[in-house]
């Protein structure tokens, strides 16, 4: 429907109907206006599957939804480092929505993984904003190619579950822009999701739902977002200010209460009716975009999509450790130990919980194909060792040539609604792994979890596989990797620290009451660990393969560029092993010398390529000014500081294999204002300033040979240079300068013109 027709439709609506369009009919539907032929539209939970509820509705998944297919959760999807894979997953989800009449699927959820403790980390993508935004953008592109909308969430700074509906995320401007907004920016500006869901929390004291800076100034005016903003379910606090700030649709229904507030505000002259009209126009645009592109022939083929979920899951699995034990020779006798081998934990709890059509476990996938014996090993409803199950597992492990232990975090340890208290696995599982490793030298641990865990047994096992929460077909994907039918290619989208106390937010996470200070600033995840040169369990971007890849011939299009130019970077990658595999090439950029505090390096691009044995491919990247920039709080914009930058090619943030240095010249000039407190060191960096203030440089304190005798020992050359460098220029009056403060200020005024 054209804009003219939609505006004509709005002109024929009475105020009460327009106010009604700004809230839901129930939990999952917008309101219809029957007399004008405006249909109701359905939205549904499910960033990694379709959680459509037909009957009684609820937010946290208590009531049953339709049978659907559960794909890997965000933690696993991001581990694929494969944009094309996520786009294909999105197309499948979009097709399912068409088949079920769902206009918007509520996801992806891409809040930054600030701490391993966030209960909803399983649904989120990464600690790195570039990886998060590009993977989310790929999913959005796929879903919306089927004329179904997405609702990227939760906008923004929703990084904990504790007090999530009242806490205030307190952060500085640079942290906000470089980390927490950046996770959304690329996906929104490039792929243009149909809707954006605001978060529950406050941002520097202002609720996200009524945060004009976020919803209008940045989202719409700066980034060009043209869809509608929907509240997280129950996030509306003050309906009229929310609407004025840019929150178009309130969900779920408020039973008409907030609709009346909108009507009263317009009638009393508090709220302009044009604000209501704009919100209604945005909502109708999306409703009709779906309605006019309905695919009535679409069929939800759950069996076909289950197989697709298995193929996607294969690329989300990360091989963390392999001491010549994987892949397991297919004829060996293998013990599968642990409850999750038979009943995998493959998704998180809460609003994204999918009522799975079917679930393939590792035991089921291996049945009839391999010589596998099974023992339950532990219970996950209580964190208490079951001596009978433990003893049975030990006996089974003794009978086998290799023991594969399926462990991880139970639902009670991580879910929407609450945060983890620690980073440990259940004690009963840690004990199981330790006991098995004492009787069986060949142990592999498969982990089912949504975020990092401590591994006190890491040195006692030969192999570790991170399966994350890989969806309903994860059992088959893991078995294929264990026995070498699939070459693992996942990479960690987050750092696994040795212990929780190492995490940069450890001292401040959860906050005090309703105030949560982001004191670690931009140093989230690997940005912190790498800057501190701190040992970690497994670094960001880490992941092993069954083959070997060699990088060579790193080239750049220019060694000197302006920040207005694009730098092309190419590198050759060769599979030198004897098995086909996929490699993730990671490009980091490091500012060699900066006047502001910056991370040691930052991920600026990545690519995943498939290579046959002996095959070489050339991978090409393009870097724009944003790759070299930081957010400058003086100009409130991105800024490239002239200097040298290292282009780093790595297999992880800690495994850099090639590097090349380029010089980038910034074209944006910063306004510099000199005062009496400006130091001589800062003056010396500016040729024009030196020319005007040159007479001050003839002071006695600048003389190298001033001190004699005992004074030479007391005042070294290094000490004199440091004193001069950091002395305010007003010091010239006190240290032999032939000028007054007024004369000095006159020179500064001339300099600042």
Q: What can you tell me about this protein's structure?
A:
The chain has 753 residues and is an alpha/beta fold. The protein has 5 domains: 1-36 and 253-292, no CATH class; 37-249, Glycoside hydrolase, family 3, N-terminal domain (TIM Barrel, Alpha-Beta Barrel); 310-531, 3-Layer(aba) Sandwich (Rossmann fold); 549-665, Immunoglobulins (Immunoglobulin-like, Sandwich), CATH 2.60.40.10; 680-751, no CATH class. Helices cover 30% and strands 18% of the residues. The strands form 6 sheets. It has a 6-stranded mixed β-sheet. Strand 6 (202-203) and strand 7 (206-207) form a beta hairpin. Helix 1 (3-11) crosses helix 11, helix 2 crosses helix 10 (257-267) and helix 4 runs antiparallel to helix 12 (302-314). The longest helix has 19 residues, at 273-291. It is globular, with a radius of gyration of 29 Å. The two termini are 56 Å apart.
Task: Outline the fold blueprint.
Layout: H1 3-11, H2 15-21, E1 43-45, H3 74-79, H4 83-100, E2 104-106, H5 129-144, E3 149-155, E4 168-170, H6 173-180, H7 182-191, E5 195-198, E6 202-203, E7 206-207, H8 212-222, E8 228-230, H9 239-245, H10 257-267, H11 273-291, H12 302-314, E9 318-322, E10 333-337, H13 339-342, H14 362-366, E11 371-375, H15 387-399, E12 402-408, H16 427-439, E13 443-448, E14 463-466, H17 474-482, E15 515-517, H18 526-531, E16 549-556, E17 560-562, E18 567-575, E19 581-591, E20 602-611, E21 616-623, E22 630-632, E23 637-639, E24 643-652, E25 655-665, H19 680-683, H20 687-692, H21 710-714, H22 717-725, H23 731-734, H24 741-751
Parallel strand pairs: 1-2, 2-3, 3-5, 4-6, 4-15, 5-8, 10-11, 10-12, 12-13, 13-14, 17-25
Antiparallel strand pairs: 6-7, 9-14, 16-18, 18-21, 19-20, 19-24, 22-23, 24-25
Helix pairs in contact: 1-11, 2-10, 2-11, 4-5, 4-12, 5-7, 12-17, 15-16
């Amino acid at each position: 429907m054209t804009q003219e027709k939609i505006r004509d439709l709005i002109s024929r609506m009475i105020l009460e109907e327009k106010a009604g369009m700004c809230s839901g009919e129930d939990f999952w539907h917008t309101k219809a206006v029957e007399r004008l032929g405006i249909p109701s539209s359905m939205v549904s939970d499910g960033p990694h599957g379709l959680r459509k509820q037909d009957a009684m509705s609820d937010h946290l998944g208590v009531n049953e939804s339709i049978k659907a297919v559960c794909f890997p959760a965000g933690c696993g999807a991001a581990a694929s480092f494969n944009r094309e894979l996520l786009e294909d997953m999105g197309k499948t989800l979009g097709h399912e929505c068409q088949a079920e009449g769902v206009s918007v699927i509520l996801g992806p959820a891409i809040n930054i993984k600030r701490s391993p403790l966030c209960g909803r980390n399983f649904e989120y993508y990464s600690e790195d904003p570039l990886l998060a935004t590009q993977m989310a953008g790929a999913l959005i592109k796929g879903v919306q190619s089927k004329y179904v909308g997405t609702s990227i969430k939760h906008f923004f700074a929703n990084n904990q579950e504790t007090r999530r509906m009242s806490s205030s995320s307190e952060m500085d401007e640079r942290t906000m822009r470089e980390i927490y907004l950046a996770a959304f920016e690329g996906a929104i500006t490039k792929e243009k999701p149909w809707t954006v869901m605001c978060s529950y929390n406050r941002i520097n004291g202002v609720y996200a739902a009524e945060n004009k800076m976020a919803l209008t100034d940045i989202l719409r005016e700066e980034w060009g977002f043209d869809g509608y903003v929907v509240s997280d379910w129950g996030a509306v606090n003050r309906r009229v200010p929310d609407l004025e700030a840019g929150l178009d649709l309130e969900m779920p229904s408020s039973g008409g209460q907030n609709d009346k507030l909108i009507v009263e505000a317009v009638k009393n002259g508090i709220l302009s009716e044009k604000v209501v009209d704009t919100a209604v126009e945005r909502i109708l645009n999306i409703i009709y975009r779906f309605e006019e592109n309905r695919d009535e022939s679409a069929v939800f083929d759950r069996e076909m999509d289950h197989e697709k979920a298995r193929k996607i899951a294969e690329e989300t699995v990360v091989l963390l450790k392999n001491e010549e034990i994987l892949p397991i020779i297919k004829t060996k006798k293998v013990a599968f130990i642990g409850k999750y081998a038979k009943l995998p934990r493959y998704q998180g709890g809460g609003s994204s919980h999918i009522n799975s059509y079917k679930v393939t476990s590792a035991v089921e996938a291996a049945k009839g194909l391999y010589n596998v014996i099974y023992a339950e090993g532990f219970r996950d409803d209580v964190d208490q060792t079951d001596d009978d199950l433990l003893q049975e597992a030990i006996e089974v492990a003794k009978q086998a040539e290799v023991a594969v232990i399926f462990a991880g975090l139970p639902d009670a340890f991580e879910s929407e609604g609450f945060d983890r208290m620690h980073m440990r696995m259940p004690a009963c599982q840690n004990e199981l792994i330790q006991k098995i490793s004492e009787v069986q030298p060949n142990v592999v641990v498969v982990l089912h979890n949504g975020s990092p865990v401590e591994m006190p047994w890491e040195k006692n096992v030969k192999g570790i596989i991170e399966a994350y929460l890989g969806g309903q077909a994860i059992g088959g994907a893991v078995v294929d990797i264990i026995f070498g039918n699939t070459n693992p290619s996942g990479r960690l989208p987050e750092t696994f620290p040795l212990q929780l106390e190492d995490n940069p937010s450890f001292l401040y996470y959860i906050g005090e009451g309703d105030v949560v200070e982001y004191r670690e600033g931009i140093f989230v995840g690997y940005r912190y660990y790498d800057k501190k040169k701190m040992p970690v369990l497994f670094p960001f971007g880490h992941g092993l393969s069954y083959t070997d890849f060699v990088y060579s011939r790193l080239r750049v299009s220019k060694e000197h560029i302006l920040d207005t130019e694009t730098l092309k970077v190419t590198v050759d990658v060769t599979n030198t092993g004897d098995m086909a595999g996929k490699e993730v090439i990671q490009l980091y950029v490091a500012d060699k010398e900066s006047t502001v505090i910056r991370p040691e390096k930052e991920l600026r691009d990545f690519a995943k390529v498939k290579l046959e044995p002996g095959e070489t491919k050339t991978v090409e990247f393009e870097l724009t000014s944003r790759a070299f920039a930081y957010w400058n709080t003086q100009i409130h914009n991105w800024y490239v500081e002239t200097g040298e930058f290292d282009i780093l090619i790595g297999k992880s943030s800690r495994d850099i294999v090639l590097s090349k240095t380029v010089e980038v010249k910034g074209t944006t000039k910063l306004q510099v204002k000199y005062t009496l407190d400006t130091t001589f060191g800062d003056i010396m960096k500016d040729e024009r300033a030196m020319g005007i203030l040159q007479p001050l440089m003839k002071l006695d304190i600048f003389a190298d040979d001033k001190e004699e005798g005992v004074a030479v020992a007391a005042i070294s050359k290094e000490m004199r240079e440091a004193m001069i460098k950091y002395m305010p220029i007003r010091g010239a009056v006190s240290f032999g300068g032939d000028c007054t403060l007024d004369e000095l200020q006159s020179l500064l005024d001339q300099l600042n013109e």
